[in-house]
Design brief:
By secondary structure, the chain is an alpha/beta fold. The chain is built from ten helices and twelve strands.
């Protein structure tokens, strides 16, 4: 059983498990947050660059993984999981009975899926929140806009491209889970009969900026004026927590398809600015945690 040791005005105390690219980028965003405090940064490799970075910022580190979170459970409010889908499933089974809030940045798809631009408020009381995938965070809100401008869709396609250097080994091991979870989020937030997700890992140097295309057939009955207005509003909403998010191809009807293309440029906290796929999911996760901190106050 957890004991509350902080006042409502204190920063929420968080633990991060996973010291790879996503976990390290998340750590830097938590450190920069005025309402969050990282009390432990835990992984398995002492030589992880993320561990070294955390130590340089005075953050307590551990190579005991989820066990380090369990040891400090009574002092924590939130656990961020930035490991892999398989590990997150095991971690959630451990954290659940402890009563800790669990924000999952892997595509484990274990419960409530959260895209802050679409359903932040209804996620704030959930113990487990899944942040879908980087492509899901970038593309599903635009898919939702298309759906809202129709009476339902028969087929919708999402193609996401990221630089090879920004996709770490855990993400590469979870490609199947990435596709399944992104498609599940598309069906959750859109009235679509069939959804398809394609992920491209591009080895070009210098690294490409993350790009996402959302496409439906021009045969769908889409109100283009309503769609353009919805996309403009959605872009502004996402930029409120992901500053590098931008629509680069507004809704167009061409060659038998209706398409929207968005890019996500990162802040360059951990990897180069081209690694927007890190920013889109870490910013989304921090947005959930910060909203919980504000609600507590």
């Amino acid at each position: 059983m957890r004991t509350q040791t902080s006042s409502p005005t204190d920063p929420l105390r968080v633990g991060i498990v996973g010291t790879g690219n996503i976990g390290t980028d998340l750590l830097l965003k938590v450190i920069a947050s005025p309402v969050l405090q990282c009390d432990v940064f835990a992984g398995r490799r002492a030589e992880s660059p993320g561990i070294g970075l955390a130590k340089s910022h005075g953050v307590t580190t551990s190579v005991d993984g989820i066990e380090a979170i369990v040891e400090r459970a009574s002092d924590l409010d939130i656990v961020f999981d930035a490991t892999s889908a398989k590990d997150a499933e095991r971690h959630w089974a451990i954290v659940d009975p402890l009563g800790l809030q669990f924000i999952d940045l892997t595509p484990a798809n274990l419960g409530k899926l959260c895209v802050p631009a679409l359903n932040l408020d209804e996620c704030l009381e959930e113990q487990y929140v899944g942040m879908v995938t980087c492509g899901g965070q970038a593309a599903v809100p635009m898919a939702h806009c298309i759906n809202e401008a129709t009476n339902g869709l028969s087929y919708l396609e999402i193609v996401s491209a990221s630089s090879s250097a920004s996709v770490g080994p855990a993400s590469r091991a979870n490609l199947d889970e990435y596709v399944i979870t992104t498609e599940q989020a598309t069906r959750t937030f859109c009235d679509v009969e069939d959804a398809k997700t394609i992920l491209i890992i591009n080895p070009a140097e210098p690294g490409i900026v993350m790009r996402n295309s959302i496409t439906v057939s021009a045969s769908e009955q889409v109100d283009m004026d309503a769609l353009r207005a919805a996309v403009d509003t959605m872009e502004k909403q996402i930029r409120s927590y992901v500053p590098g998010y931008r629509v680069v191809v507004p809704p167009v009807n061409a060659s038998g398809r209706i398409m929207i293309t968005v890019e996500v440029e990162g802040r360059g906290d951990w990897l180069p600015r081209s690694a927007g796929n890190l920013d889109i999911i870490t910013c989304a996760a921090v947005a959930v945690a910060e909203a919980r901190a504000e609600r507590r106050v």
